[in-house]
From TrEMBL:
It is found in: Periplasm. One of its GO terms (cellular component) is periplasmic space. This is Putrescine-binding periplasmic protein. Required for the activity of the bacterial periplasmic transport system of putrescine. The keyword Transport applies. It comes from the Bacteria. Keywords: Periplasm, Signal, Transport. GO terms for molecular function: polyamine binding. One of its GO terms (biological process) is polyamine transport. It holds the Pfam family SBP_bac_8. Its main location: periplasm.
Length: 350
C-alpha cells in the first residue's frame, strides 16, 4: 500500500509539472526521467548555461516502477527518458516515446552503429548512450575466497547469511539464476523457470534485501552491512574508487549485456529542446564526460579520443573478448512466462 501511495503521489506531481512550469514564465524546463545519480550535474549545468534550458530529473528505482508510472500517466509531464533497450522497446507500441527527428540531431553520426542496432525495435526512437554488464560486487577482505561464478552468488558460503543483496527486478534475478543453472537467461521453458525460482528460494536466507546498493560512501558494501551484491559493472567500479576493498567479477557462466538509450517522450511539449539536449550529449567531449563520470562504456565512437587510457583499458568497464563472448541481451518473453516469473519473485520476497 505504501508503494502505491508513493507512486500515486509521484504521478500526481508529474501531472502538475507543465502548468507550474509554463505559467508566468517564458523559460523552458525539460523533465528527464532517469535513474538517480545517472547524469553528471555539470553536464546539466553546462547545457543550461549554453541554451537557457533547465533540465530537471525525476527518478525511478526500478524498471517495474518506471513502467508503472508511464502506464498510469502516458508520459504526461515528462520530456525525456533514459532506459535500457530491453525496456524501451516496450514503449514504442503504446506510444510513450516519439520517433526521433534526425534533422535535429547533427551529432547522431557519432553513435556507433553496432549499439544503434542492438535493440532493433528501438532504432529510430532512442539514441544509445552507454552500455555495460551485470555481475557480482563483493568485499575482498570478507570472503574466504573471491566469487567467480553465479553459483558462488546463489549458493554462498554458510557464513554469508543476511550478507547478500539481490536486485529487485525479476528479469535480473531470474535471468542470472537461469544462467547459474546452465540455461538461457531468456528461457521460456516453464520447468527451467521454476528451477530458477527454487534456486532463488534456497538463496533467500542469505539475502539481506532485494534492492540495489547505494553507490556512494554510505554504500552497504563499503559499510560492511553486505558482502556480495548483484550489481552493474560501472557502479562497482565507482565503489572500488571509493574503497579498494570492493571488487567486481564477471561471472564465469555469462551475464546480461544492456544498452541504455535516451528518447523523447511522446507527450512532451518541448520536443525541439529535448532533441537539443540529446544532441548536446552526443558531442564527443560530453559523451566522454558522461562515460567517465558514470564509469560505463560509451556507445559514442567519437568519444574514444576524449576518454582516458585508464578508462578505456579498464576490463571492468570494457570487458575482454572472453567475457563478451558469454553475454546476452534480454529478449521479449511470453506473457505466460513473465506472469509466472513475477508471481514467483513476489512470493520469494515476502
Amino acid at each position: 500500500m505504501e508503494h502505491r501511495l508513493i507512486l500515486w503521489l509521484t504521478i500526481w506531481g508529474v501531472s502538475l509539472l507543465y502548468p507550474l512550469a509554463v505559467r508566468g514564465s517564458d523559460s523552458v524546463e525539460l523533465v528527464l526521467y532517469n535513474w538517480a545519480n545517472y547524469m553528471p550535474p555539470e553536464l546539466l549545468d553546462a547545457f543550461q548555461k549554453e541554451t537557457g534550458v533547465q533540465v530537471r530529473e525525476l527518478y525511478y528505482s526500478s524498471d517495474e516502477s518506471k513502467q508503472a508510472l508511464l502506464a498510469e500517466t502516458q508520459g504526461v509531464g515528462l520530456d525525456l527518458i533514459i532506459s535500457a533497450g530491453a525496456s524501451m522497446r516496450e514503449y514504442v507500441i503504446p506510444e510513450w516515446i516519439d520517433a526521433l527527428q534526425p534533422e535535429l540531431l547533427p551529432h547522431l553520426s557519432n553513435v556507433d552503429s553496432h549499439w544503434m542496432e542492438k535493440f532493433g525495435e528501438v532504432e529510430g526512437f532512442g539514441v544509445p548512450l552507454l552500455w555495460g554488464t551485470i555481475g557480482i560486487a563483493y568485499r575482498s577482505d570478507k570472503l574466504p575466497q573471491p566469487p567467480s561464478s553465479w553459483q558462488d552468488f546463489f549458493k554462498p558460503h554458510h557464513t554469508l547469511r543476511q550478507k547478500i543483496m539481490v536486485i529487485d527486478d525479476s528479469a535480473d534475478a531470474f535471468g542470472m539464476a537461469l544462467v547459474a543453472l546452465g540455461y538461457s537467461m531468456n528461457s521460456t521453458d516453464l520447468a527451467q523457470v521454476e528451477a530458477a525460482g527454487m534456486l532463488l528460494e534456497q538463496q533467500k536466507p542469505y539475502v539481506a534485501g532485494y534492492a540495489y546498493p547505494l553507490i556512494d560512501e554510505n554504500s552497504e558494501l563499503i559499510k560492511g552491512h553486505i558482502v556480495m551484491a548483484m550489481m552493474y559493472n560501472g557502479d562497482a567500479v565507482g565503489l572500488h574508487e571509493l574503497d579498494p576493498r570492493v571488487e567486481f567479477v564477471a561471472p564465469a557462466e555469462g551475464a546480461n549485456l544492456w544498452v541504455d538509450y535516451i528518447g523523447v517522450v511522446k507527450k512532451s511539449q518541448h520536443k525541439e529542446e529535448a532533441h537539443q539536449f540529446i544532441d548536446f550529449l552526443l558531442r564527443p567531449e560530453n559523451a566522454a564526460k558522461l562515460s567517465e563520470s558514470l564509469h560505463y562504456a560509451s556507445a559514442n565512437k567519437a568519444a574514444a579520443s576524449k576518454l582516458s587510457k585508464e578508462h578505456l583499458e579498464n576490463p571492468d568497464i570494457y570487458p575482454p573478448k572472453d567475457v563478451m563472448d558469454k553475454v546476452d541481451t534480454y529478449k521479449v518473453i511470453s506473457p505466460e512466462v513473465l506472469k509466472l516469473r513475477n508471481q514467483m519473485f513476489r512470493s520469494i520476497k515476502r
